[in-house]
Fold:
Amino acid sequence: MILAGTASATQNKLKEFLAQGDTHKRRVEFVITAFEQYLDMACAAIKKYDPNHLTLGIRFGGTISDELLHTGRKFDVCSVNVYEYEPVAQVERVYRHTGRPVLIGEFHIGVPANGLGAGLYRLKTRKSVEQLIGFM
Structure:
């Protein structure tokens, strides 16, 4: 998209970068590097004008590549959305790549019988939800 788009400083940098080898891996490397530079700039501005608060990240969602997830180390806390029955593995993976505390920004299981939306995962009754998450 960058190469096919309007001429820009980013497009020029990408062309220079790819002149030394144009592979999928190098394209991913360029995008991740550019994204990290953007995050550095945004986080520096936040810290400059609001130094007494944590940066909570951008709330990654879905299946995140290791390379992209690694950028979460730029934040004080790495925020994620979790749509799995068992979020522990996902939280551990985020922590392993970022070394940051993990905040689950969105998590839900729908119970249509109770009038709730079906959600990405659904259970038949509220009792099923309570059993799933360990309530007594």
Notes: The chain is about 45% helix and 10% strand. The two ends are 52 Å apart (CA to CA).
